[in-house]
């Protein structure tokens, strides 16, 4: 099959109406036939239709300044990694003892949990090793690693949270806000049995979670308190590798991704914001997107009072997912592992899973930033970053039990 038949193109937006006002848009077009869960047959049919309508799409120029190809360790495919020792850092007995000592040290300080830091959670030998791993995320490395493994059963929930935040402070000192109550910690867990009808995000279900980035964070970290009885494989993919594929075979999609999209905010005061999904700044490609903002999910369907996405954008969303899937790496995520990924250069996803009475998948999540090593954030994304990281230590809360975060709560009926 020719490359152009595999990579779907976005609609031609040269008429300048990528994001027409809602009053014009809704009268001229409707939301494309696209759902949260990607449909390969629909993607291929849309591709074929658009290429038939405009065979010149694959020869479109890239947006001004965008590179034809990225050459970096951040460009990789799953097949490039043959041994998990390439990305797993195994904690030694001595390092685990340092962690235990650091827990006791912080508890003795009687400080608010928001003050967990390198200074208050001392790791004399492990700390420098973690700081070196931080460079693996930001510059010159693959953009991800796994820390193995914390003996979670040996600690209380509160101490596991303390360990997680303490170790992460060596990777990236700033913790990001994930909920309006000052919450900097999220629990990723199936909550459909206790919050039926209240869920608008796949993180709180057993559903497959498609490839995406989290919104407004440099680094996404996950700590496995428990794994599923079956399934739930964590998958990651280099967005830089996806970029190279699109730039070569479907540069028109790069153009669509680099232009403003109507991002659903699901509220009355600000129904949607306009921003691109793709940026090129300081010789770095940054892709920030999550599919549910354009398709909706369960209790949060796509808002009807905002511009629908275009056929081009629908193709672009499917292209990102299916190419990420093609080039992805499945991580053997064990109980007690902590995963760190560069959220600006890596997509992540999760297979569907099944829990049982003995094993119920339960992850903790932090959003992190390292001001010293972190990339410069493109201007349209800076309000997101300010909202995420503008939280003082004394305002930070660490929920010990799962809650459905406000941004993914279903609308009241």
Instruction: Count all strands and give the number.
Output: 19
Number of helices: 11
As a whole number of angstroms, the C-alpha radius of gyration is 21 Å
Profile the largest sheet: 7 strands, mixed
Protein name: Taurine catabolism dioxygenase TauD
Organism: Lyophyllum shimeji (Hon-shimeji)
Keywords: Dioxygenase, Oxidoreductase
Region (Disordered): 1-69
Would you write up a description of this structure?
By secondary structure, this protein is an alpha+beta fold. The protein has one domain (35-413): 4-Layer Sandwich (Double-stranded beta-helix). Helices cover 28% and strands 18% of the residues. It is built from 11 helices and 19 strands. Strands 1, 2, 3, 4, 6, 16 and 19 form a 7-stranded mixed sheet that branches. A 4-stranded antiparallel sheet has the order 5-17-8-15. α4 crosses α6 (157-171) and α7 (239-249) packs across α8 (251-257). The chain is globular. The termini are far apart. 46% of the residues are buried.
Structural features:
single chain; 413 residues; alpha+beta; Double-stranded beta-helix; 11 helices; 19 strands; globular; disordered N terminus; disordered C terminus; TauD-like_sf
List the helices and strands and how they pair.
Elements: H1 3-6, H2 22-28, H3 40-53, E1 88-90, H4 93-109, H5 126-138, E2 144-148, H6 157-171, E3 174-175, E4 186-189, E5 209-212, E6 219-226, E7 230-231, E8 234-238, H7 239-249, H8 251-257, E9 261-264, E10 272-275, E11 278-281, E12 284-287, H9 292-295, E13 296-297, E14 300-301, H10 311-326, E15 329-331, E16 338-342, E17 346-350, E18 353-354, E19 362-369, H11 382-389
Parallel strand pairs: 1-2
Antiparallel strand pairs: 2-16, 3-19, 4-19, 5-17, 6-16, 6-19, 7-18, 8-15, 8-17, 9-10, 11-12, 13-14
